[in-house]
Design goal:
- With 281 residues, the protein is an alpha+beta fold.
- The protein has two domains: 136 residues, Diaminopimelate Epimerase, Chain A, domain 1 (Roll), CATH 3.10.310.10; 114 residues, Diaminopimelate Epimerase, Chain A, domain 1 (Roll).
- The chain has five helices and 18 strands.
- The chain has an 18-stranded mixed sheet that branches.
- Strand 2, helix 1 and strand 3 form a beta-alpha-beta unit.
Length: 281
Amino acid sequence: MLKFTKMEGLGNDYIYVDGIHQKVDMTPEFITRISDRHFGIGSDGMIVILPSQKYDFFMRMFNRDGSEGKMCGNGIRCFAKFVYDHHLTDQTYLEIETLAGVKRVWLHVENGTVQSVKVDMGQPSLNTQDIPCLFNKEQMVDEPLNINHHIYRCTAVSMGNPHVVTYVDQLDFEIEKIGPYFEKNEMFPESVNTEFVQVIDRQHLKMRVWERGSGETMACGTGACAVMYASYVNGLCDSQVDVELLGGILNIQYQDGHIFMEGPARTVFEGIMNEEDFKNV
């Protein structure tokens, strides 16, 4: 039997599992089955809490299709809430190891539970090698990209994981018809997360996101950070903005070369699963 907690940050929901005190199956087959919204628990994937040799904790995150991601901004806020609320730590400042590097987080606690979390998301990069992106320049900033016979002006950003940002006049369109063409475009050898952005004003951006391995999600923390930085570089916003996603609003700030993200984290429910039920489907 495996204990788990369903959590969400702006509707970006994952199954959280304590991998310190129990053995966790991290195979793609198992993750895909428990993430299924009809036959499983239902989620955008699974996040596992693990010990770190050098830092407070190590976070591994997996997409709905079982592929492993490097980092999840909404996920790390819920991760921080999990370890505090489950008494794995009593600290309100944590350093969490991820495949995208170490992230510093500050917990806002009320009445013994975490209400919101601020995360130092690190230094964004426009270097195409960091993304990786096979564009023929060192940076892809407001450059034309042919996607399924349409030209989009694109800016590619690494937040420890790959993002491409493009701007639209309005967000009412069928994202499922265009998102996969961005995700699997040969320009991005490790595939890419795609953000479609509407600029409301210099302090307010709206976006929809197509995440690699998951499709459209309610929110993407690293995506909101990439959107803020791409917009800042393109002269479309100030150094601190509210980024509005389908699931709610994140406050994103660019300061001293780092991106800081602040937003909510919420526990939906806790439960116990019999792993064997999902291994023999």
